[in-house]
Each structure stands twice: as structure tokens, then as C-alpha cells.
Design goal:
This protein is α+β, with helices and mostly antiparallel strands. The chain is built from six helices and six strands.
Length: about 140
């Protein structure tokens, strides 16, 4: 069975082509009706993928990369600057506030960022396998 290194649900990436993803060995395992892509990212492609989304993510969007060891968030603000965070209990409130701001949602909805991310069907089983304690706290 193939090892899943990292998952990413890529939306807000109009300037990133399927060919660019495939050229760095990122596998597109599904697409939504709105064009969002469900990606499997091997460990050896992670740095290139992060570089790609850092450079080309649409303003006002974020992307998360879910791995067994950590979850990385890349936020591209409306002014174009980018901030990256590795999710931890120490910065969860800060990431919660950014997710709520970017989605025009109440911070209550995203307060447990681990749970919020696990509600995405693409991430759910992987998240429950690796982050159950943080989701169910």
C-alpha cells in the first residue's frame, strides 16, 4: 500500500496548473465542481509544493498541508504578503482568527482548528488517524 505523506485541498490557486503540480510529483486524486483539487504530496515534493503555493496562491486565500507529524498553513493576504504557520496548540488561536477572517466566519466555528480541518471529507480519516486527541478535546 502506498504511503500517504501529505494531503492538501487546493483552492484559490487559479495560477497553478495541473501540469505544474504533476511536474513536482504531486498527485491530483480528485477535483470538485468548483475546480478545487485534492492532492497527495510525497515528502520529497513538499518544499517545491510549498514554494509553488507561496508564490502563486490567490490573494485572500490560504492553503493547508496536512501531514502525519504536522499541519502547515500558508496564508496569502489581500496585500499579497504571505505568512506560514505550523499548527500547534500555542498558535491555534492565531490560525483560528485568520481562518475566520479569510472565510468571513465567526471564530467560534473554527476555534478547534484540528476539528475544523477534519470536517473536510478529504482530510477526515487521515486527521482522525493522526490527530484524534486534538480533535476530540
Amino acid at each position: 500500500m502506498k504511503t500517504i505523506d501529505h494531503l492538501s485541498y487546493l483552492m484559490g490557486a487559479d495560477d497553478i496548473t495541473d501540469q505544474e503540480l504533476e511536474s513536482i510529483n504531486v498527485e491530483i486524486v480528485g477535483k470538485t465542481d468548483t475546480g478545487s483539487r485534492k492532492l497527495l504530496i510525497p515528502e520529497q515534493s513538499l518544499k517545491l509544493y510549498i514554494q509553488l503555493i507561496t508564490n502563486k496562491l490567490n490573494k485572500g486565500f490560504w492553503n493547508e498541508v496536512v501531514g502525519a507529524e504536522n499541519i502547515l498553513f500558508v496564508f496569502r493576504f489581500e496585500d499579497g504578503h504571505v505568512e506560514q504557520f505550523t499548527l500547534s496548540p500555542e498558535n491555534e488561536q492565531q490560525i483560528d482568527a485568520l481562518c475566520a477572517e479569510f472565510n468571513n466566519e465567526s471564530p467560534d466555528k473554527t476555534a478547534n482548528v484540528y476539528m475544523y480541518i477534519s470536517e473536510n471529507d478529504f482530510y477526515h480519516d487521515f486527521m482522525m488517524r493522526h490527530y484524534r486527541e486534538l480533535i476530540e478535546r
